[in-house]
Each structure stands twice: as structure tokens, then as C-alpha cells.
Amino acid sequence: MRQGISFGESCLPSIPQGGQVSLIDSATLSPNARILGVQAASLMGLDVAEVRIVRHWMTGEWYVLDTSATPPFSAGAFVPDKVSAYTAYLQRKLGAETGLDRQPR
User: Which one-letter DSSP state was computed for residue 43?
Assistant: First the structure.
């Protein structure tokens, strides 16, 4: 997961430049934010999605900004990590659908 944006590598064009990007463990993300993101993707029928969420600075409530069926795997920061995670997802999905283990050799 990404948090913030980086100079010159943003794949969030509607957010002003100037923040920092860091990878975070999804387990450390607020459970409410994680549930909201999964629900947004599920409502659109997506297994993989980019869901942009924000937290209200006063109430602490989470809101969905948008959901995209085409997350920017090959753009922005952390491309190798994003591609690796998506590859692992596809291998699990293909293995589950075919009953075959599709691990690379």
C-alpha cells in the first residue's frame, strides 16, 4: 500500500505534489479504512483495484475518493513491489481456478 505521493513520481495526478511516499503493511492500516477499500472494490466487482481514501481530519471518518479498475502498476513509486504483488495474486488466482500450482521455476 502507498501512503502519500512523491515528487515527480506521482500516479495520483489529482493530488498536489509535495508529500512523501512510503510502503506500509496493510495490517497496520486502520481496519475501517481497509474494510471501506475492500467494500468499494467489491461494489464494482473488482478483485484488484486502486481505491483512494481519505480520513477527515476532525472526525477521523474515512471516505472513498475514487476507485479504479486499472491501478498504476507500472507507474509511480515502488513499481517492482507492485508488480511482484500483482504477479503473486495472478499466480494464486490461476492456481485456484485450474487446480494447478503455477509457481515460477
Answer: H
